[in-house]
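Batch job 17 of 40 flagged for manual review because the log was empty.
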Amino acid sequence: MRAPVRIPEDRDLSIDFARALCLPVVVLLHALQMGIGGDPLRAFNALDGFEPLAWATWPLMIMPVFFICGGFASITQWRRLRGHGETGAHYLRVRAVRLAQPVVSVTAAVGLVLGGMLLAGVDFGFVQSFAVRLAEPLWFIPVYLICTALVPAMSWLHRHAPWPTYLGLAAGAALVDVLARGLGLPIGALNWLFVWLFAQQLGFGLRDGWFARRSWPLLVAIAAFAYGFIAMLVTVFGYSHDMLDNLNPPSLAILALALGQVALFALLQPAIRRFVAHRTVLGVVFVFGVYGMVIYLWHTFAMAIVTAAQLLVGLPFPPVLSPSWWATRPLWILAIALVVAACCAVVPRLETRWPAPVERRTPLAAVVVWTLCAVGGVGVFLTLGYVPWTHGVLGWTLVTLAVVALIAGGPGPRAPRARADEVDAFTATARA
């Protein structure tokens, strides 16, 4: 008789299930968005203006769920570390290394594939447009890293002034939309902060059981209000009905979507907990949990490999959204999935070659500087791209320097050896 799987008391498997469910949706969407065609050949968003997808984004735009679940997990980890006497600097250093370190490997790998394409004589214009599409999913890393860096401060606000914090973030997002959309001021990027911090705060509320204590009619009313608010934004104020359009930069529509999603999740949470308690389901959730970062980051490398192979053997690229294009999408997605599976088998072993962070208390200022350096490095890929090679090398160098510096630590006394429960306890128990 197999022993029951032991789960840490402060871990909620419904959160792991939500993240496991959302991850393949995001990867699938990115794979379908990769359009290649034209004369000369170029890469572009294949689903831009595709109306069936636009309406489908109302239930399928699940990026808010990642930030809600991230808020739940982040405040849990921060409280655990704080209970052991750790500082905000230590928390940020741990999180920054965890998020930025995988970027070093994947950007180098993608850069090598792109470089190989250029050496093989592939048109520079195509490689440049393709590189832009491959870099776009990286936006999640700097935004999530900034939100993570603010967890200690936002946790304090959540404890002492939860409602003013929620309302302040929502008001900030509304003001940015008014000034950016109404007056044309170039400040829309501020909503990368206001909207995603709001979603993260919802995760804090979910962690503390606020939504669980609400009656189901109230949760239904919150969800109805949120989606009704989105409908008003679309019909009255001219917001796009495509949530992908509302994502860059995020708008009030995404903020309302986060509110609706957290209410619906709270409604389903008891049923999800019962479902994920089955060992088979738990095993699937475990796999996505362990390899989640590899899957999210390395599916861009997989698209690069599959495209390079297609160019190498001379296979045609069907016209985007044509019957032949749709007919070949299952094969395209399967090929990407196979490369991603291979990455899951190889990449974690390679990443273990990184040295463990030095057990040293690093000053907060130094951690912040190197974290911003990592954010800036990813920002280079997002704004300038992988090619020309000088851009890719600059971005990679900034991220690598930041990771090396964060691992090495700064001047200061050695910290006590990390406690065992700083390691993901779910990973240890689910393997049992």
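Reviewer: the log was empty due to a logging misconfiguration, but the result itself is present. The two ends are 13 Å apart (CA to CA). Unflagging and moving on to job 18.
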